[in-house]
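Session log. Operator J.P. requested a structure for one protein chain; no other inputs attached. Running the standard single-chain path with token output.
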Amino acid sequence: MKRNSFIIKTQNSFFLSKTYLYYAIIIVILLKPAIIEDILFLDTLFNAFRVIVSICYIIKMVLFNKKIKKDWMIIASLFLIVLFSTIISHGNISKPIAHFLPGMGLIAFILADKNATYNKISAIVNTGIILLVLNFLTVVLYPEGLVYRVTNPELKIWILGQKQELGGFLIPLIFCGLALNYFDAYWRKKVICIVCLGVLTLILEQPIGALVCVILFVLLLFMDKYIIKINKSLLIIGIIMIFIGFQYICFNFDDLYYIQNALGKINTRGLSKVRTLNIRFSMWQFAWQCIFNHPLIGIGNLSVKEWIRLSNLQYISVLDNLYLDILFTGGLFSFALFIWLIKRCFNTFIRLWNERKIRYMGYCIFVLCVLFMEGSQYVPLVFLVLSVNCWFRNLYNQANDMTGVLRK
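Structure written below.
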């Protein structure tokens, strides 16, 4: 396409520049490949760099922007509520910092220079592809994992962490690739590469929830011409209905023999799906009890000692359900902010919903929201997707050289 030719010329030279290498280093620091959590020295080093880099870019964003973007402020408010709740509950303060600050830093990294939005998002996609390739190779070469977790030697850890963590990295990476592909056909092959590589890795690692979400996304792409009239309101209703269904199963799982029999026949790495779901549903039931007791600001990130005392369950740092984790740690105030953020995320594309590539991005957000129901993905890339309203307009204006097209 003629309108995209200047971008292709730019990227061919920019990919080899020192600035691009600098972007890649910053991105790796903020994303922090999950395997690093199981290497004590590197984990400490990366955490220190993540905090420093995040704070530096947040300061730069504040200094070089006339006003702070609303979506970034929503995430910052989420962080402050959870942090406050954690402090008054004498919980683990490092958890909310680790969960939210790198995501806030990554968004600030994008917003600090709006004229570099295209190059920074492209750097994220290319760096993400490299990490995906390395992760795939480690899964193939080391099927039992590269390292083992001291607290749970049964867990298999690869470059991007254990199998449950891959979906939170893969789906946002697909979204960023789709955002670039909207303006430049150059990225189409890379998006296909990400999807294929992701599916192959998921088949090998066997995280059922993430694999189902990616397959659902692919099905939505193939069925798009039949469901072209579907809008973001129906997608949001679908997310709500799925959430209600998950909670119904949670509280009635012991009586749902057909579901248990079906799950028992699924052979995956690690524990059986029936056992893992029983553990997860026990955590969710405990979470609901705490939510009813602390409805407004939640109970924060509990310390190990307090978690065991209140729940009589083995300590788990997150609830494996992002919606419930937000409710649990930050109460109704945080949950309302989180839902508002998702709504704004969908609203970014409402004016362009009739365009096929925009709907593809909407489907990606939908499956990401479905993924939240089986994992607590406090991943910087997830926050980048949810704050798309902050940066997509800059990307749109830069790629088309049409300032103000999507301004309110």
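Operator note: The beta strands are 147-149, 152-157.
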